[in-house]
Amino acid sequence: MRSNTKTQDKLLEIGKQEFLKNGFKSASLRKIVKEAGFTLGAFYGYYKDKEALFDGLVGEVAEDLFSTFRAAQNSHFNLIDCDKTIDTRELTMEYLKYFMNYIYDNFDEFKLLICCADGTKYENFIDDLVIIDVERTTEYYETLRKLGKVEGNVSQQLHHMLTSAYFTAVFETVAHDMPKEEAVSYIEQLALFFNNGWDSLIKFK
């Protein structure tokens, strides 16, 4: 967890509001600095540019999510050693609930990542998650197929399309400022819908 000075906290809070209101591209650095009561020179003592300020707001949660997401992907392979691959969908749902809690604990940061990041290195945030998921899941399916623990197949293109649709739908909760309780119910129904679809294509043994 980062430790900021009061000056940084002030810049970050005012910057967050400006980014949330106008998006990264249209956000005014001069306005942020002025409202914070500093000069541009003072700002550059903390951040090299506007994108560095944006990164200061979202970088930690984005990194944590990617790190935990990769660990979640890897944990599925543990099911093979325990001969519990039949529980794959259940494990996925458990992690989805964890991620939803994390997202809502850091809602403003994810709002920035999903809705306001155009023009930054985070502008393809959802696509980057999709790529990780498809690559690792494909490896998981191939491993199970060699062990005779899965039936069915999907093309790489279809796999990517379905995963992209799923992740986009999940983050609609953030895009539309959905209350957490409503979002949890929405996600459960969404997962049920997609899991039934996947079960018609890929069956675990």
From TrEMBL:
This is TetR/AcrR family transcriptional regulator. Residues 5-65 form the HTH tetR-type domain. PANTHER family: ACREF/ENVCD OPERON REPRESSOR-RELATED, ACREF_ENVCD OPERON REPRESSOR-RELATED. Gene3D superfamilies: Tetracycline Repressor, domain 2 (1.10.357.10). The keyword DNA damage does not apply. It comes from Vallitalea guaymasensis. The keyword DNA-binding applies. Residues 28-47 bind DNA. InterPro entries: Homeodomain-like_sf (IPR009057), HTH-type_Tx_Regulator (IPR050624), HTH_TetR (IPR001647). GO terms for molecular function: DNA binding. Pfam families: TetR_N (PF00440). Keywords: DNA-binding.
